[in-house]
């Protein structure tokens, strides 16, 4: 039997593609394959409301386990409340919706080999399809130079109300350590809160226990006693240089990648939900037959356009990682959060205008000019990485 669409990996990118496809093309049979036993509870996928189109906000709203009408940031010399809405969904809700939409999900099915006509599972079973997309998570590439956002989050049930009524996107008043350090808070209920100790560091190593302890220490300092319910960990790529042309040149004969595997993430945050929604719209919006070949062009076009648009964000990362002493990195973010709210929203949505970019880099330079100039070219980092 040949399936219409085969999506390798039951993650965020393919979950959104499946939802959008089933709505736009209910005639197509969509199959997702994943090596895991079922949806993971080790993820909370969040984003700002302004990162998503109104259609995606409506689609995801019923799935969200947390929704807030504002957010806070805290820095040593600046604190701010923004009215930008924020929401979170988890793997179980997303995959539940995907299954309800009529998508076939094969769990416990590690893929040994993927090609443009289908997948061969480790069990030896072969699954053929007209169209194949590869959403099996990040893989290193010489054409994408990254730093890391690393975090361990503990979700606790507090013995008494914790008193936080909206997300704290960054509490950078904590001791700076291992690069730019902040605490991220998501209050899911008056007595349930996710506390995530996050570091923007050069190396990809993560001491889970140390960061989990740091999150618990933070809870204690706030006076929150309670029980740990769940943990999540991440080592997210932060893009510093990207040669998208070369990246896609190497993928002319493979199933098109999507999600982190394609480098579709916000260069500064490592978050991929907004870009995943945009790619899902492209896939679901295709007219005529959907095959691996008809998918490749539009996804690659999106990638190249995105990489061009994100050039400035990668420059900011180079300034953050290469132009700033690790314990001073927070000053760049502190300065950024003094800018107007619509600019901040466009920054997270990856939709900055030329005026926004100028606004970010003008004024008193956050790092010495000579250092800033050294950060300008992208090519040397790609050459170092080759
Ligand atoms: C803990 C955590 C929290 C995050 N929070 C956010 C957030 O709040 N907002 C946001 O936008 N981003 C967030 N991210 C970053 C990023 O958006 C996520 O990593 C997102 O899940 C990436 O989506 P993806 O579809 O590319 O990959 P994934 O969602 O990781 O999906 C990849 C899937 O492929 C499967 N797979 C891999 N290899 C095989 C194989 N050989 N055979 C079969 N299946 C395979 C895996 O089991 C997995 O289910 C977070 C990341 C982590 C780790």
From TrEMBL:
> GO MF annotations for this entry?
lycopene beta cyclase activity; oxidoreductase activity, acting on paired donors, with incorporation or reduction of molecular oxygen
* InterPro entries according to UniProt: CrtY, FAD/NAD-bd_sf, Lycopene_cyclase_b/e
Q: Which GO terms describe its biological process?
A: carotenoid biosynthetic process
Membership in a protein family? Belongs to the lycopene cyclase family.
Please report the name of this protein according to its UniProt entry. Lycopene cyclase
- Species name for this entry? Paracoccus aestuarii
Species classification: Bacteria, Pseudomonadati, Pseudomonadota, Alphaproteobacteria, Rhodobacterales
Q: Give the gene name.
A: crtY
């Amino acid at each position: 039997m040949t399936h219409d669409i085969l999506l390798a990996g039951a993650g965020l990118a393919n979950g959104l593609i499946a939802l959008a496809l089933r709505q736009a093309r209910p005639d197509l049979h969509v199959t997702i394959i994943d090596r895991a036993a079922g949806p993971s509870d080790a993820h909370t996928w969040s984003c700002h409301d302004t990162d998503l189109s109104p259609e995606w906000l409506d689609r995801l709203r019923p799935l969200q386990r947390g929704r807030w009408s504002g957010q806070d940031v805290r820095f040593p010399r600046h604190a701010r409340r923004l009215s930008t809405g924020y929401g979170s969904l988890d793997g179980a809700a997303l995959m539940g919706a995907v299954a309800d939409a009529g998508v076939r999900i094969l769990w416990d099915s590690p893929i040994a080999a993927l090609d443009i006509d289908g997948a061969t599972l480790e069990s030896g079973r072969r699954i053929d399809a007209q169209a194949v997309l590869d959403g099996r998570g990040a893989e290193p590439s010489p054409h994408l130079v990254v730093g890391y956002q690393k975090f361990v989050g503990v979700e606790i049930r507090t013995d008494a109300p914790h008193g936080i009524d909206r997300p704290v996107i960054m509490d950078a008043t904590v001791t700076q350590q291992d690069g730019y350090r902040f605490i991220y808070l998501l209050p899911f209920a008056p007595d349930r809160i996710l506390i995530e100790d996050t570091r923007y560091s050069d190396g990809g190593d993560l001491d889970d226990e140390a960061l989990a302890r740091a999150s618990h220490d933070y809870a204690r300092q706030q006076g929150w006693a309670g029980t740990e319910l769940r943990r999540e960990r991440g080592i997210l790529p932060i893009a510093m240089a990207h040669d998208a042309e070369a990246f896609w040149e190497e993928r002319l004969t493979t199933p098109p990648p999507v999600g982190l595997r394609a480098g579709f993430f916000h260069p500064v945050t490592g978050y991929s939900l907004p870009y995943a929604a945009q790619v899902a719209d492209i896939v679901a919006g295709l007219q005529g037959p959907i095959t691996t070949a008809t998918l490749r062009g539009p996804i690659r076009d999106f990638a190249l356009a995105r990489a061009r648009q994100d050039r400035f964000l990668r420059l900011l990362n180079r300034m953050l990682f290469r132009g700033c002493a690790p314990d001073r990195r927070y000053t760049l973010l502190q300065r950024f959060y003094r800018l107007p709210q619509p600019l901040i929203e466009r920054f997270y949505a990856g939709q900055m205008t030329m005026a926004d970019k100028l606004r970010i880099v003008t004024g008193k330079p956050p790092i010495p000019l000579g250092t800033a100039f050294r950060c300008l070219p992208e090519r040397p980092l790609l050459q170092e990485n080759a």
